[in-house]
Write a structure and sequence with these properties.
The protein has 185 residues and is of the alpha/beta class. It is 45% helix and 15% strand. Helix 6 crosses helix 8.
Length: 185
């Protein structure tokens, strides 16, 4: 039995739709790669006025590019992130290479791209917590982003997503401590 999803899910290609249709009853929009056409952007923008729109792209550079293009042109999108380690088959990385369970988990942990930034974290805060500028910063960022289900990215991307989620410094500090404890085990 398919899971009903009352949202439009934006994906990169037809193979993603073919995979997702096996277990999701949803409406899909295909971008046909990272050069998202003006017509596709306008269509998704129109849909976003009447429906929830979830962006579910591959965990790679073209997937991030699509997210950035859509975020720049369409307010209030939701993002579902799949972990790259969970999306590899036959030397290919992508949504279609994931599992049903991983996709459902990603769709259960959405990040809303709000028009207005709510949080007030700064790059200085990330530096103080070791999330940038240190030898193990990349590892810590990756662990934090996995813990929060917000995909992968550099320090700037992490900062944007933390502020979008309105994460406070003390909350982030607790998460960093937890990740460091797990790392030391």
């Amino acid at each position: 039995m398919k899971i009903k999803c009352n949202a439009v899910i934006v994906v990169e290609g037809k193979s993603d739709v073919q995979f997702l249709e096996n277990f999701l009853d949803a409406e899909f929009v295909v971008t046909n790669g990272s050069e998202v056409s003006r017509e596709t952007i306008e269509y998704i923008f129109s849909l976003s006025k009447i429906k929830k729109v979830i962006v579910l792209t591959d965990p790679d550079f073209p997937g991030k590019r699509i997210r950035d293009i859509l975020d720049k042109n369409i307010p209030n999108l939701y993002h579902a992130f799949v972990d790259k380690k969970e999306c590899i088959k036959k030397n290919k990385v992508g949504v279609a290479e994931s599992t049903k369970e991983h996709i459902i988990s990603a769709l259960s942990n959405l990040l809303e791209n709000k028009e207005n930034k709510y949080g007030n974290l700064t790059m200085t805060d990330l530096y103080e917590l070791g999330l940038c500028g240190k030898s193990d910063s990349n590892f810590l960022r990756t662990q934090i982003m996995q813990e929060l289900h917000i995909g992968y990215g550099n320090a700037k991307t992490l900062l944007k997503r933390l502020n979008s989620l309105n994460i406070r410094y003390d909350n982030l500090q607790d998460i960093v401590k937890k990740v460091k404890i797990c790392k030391d085990r």
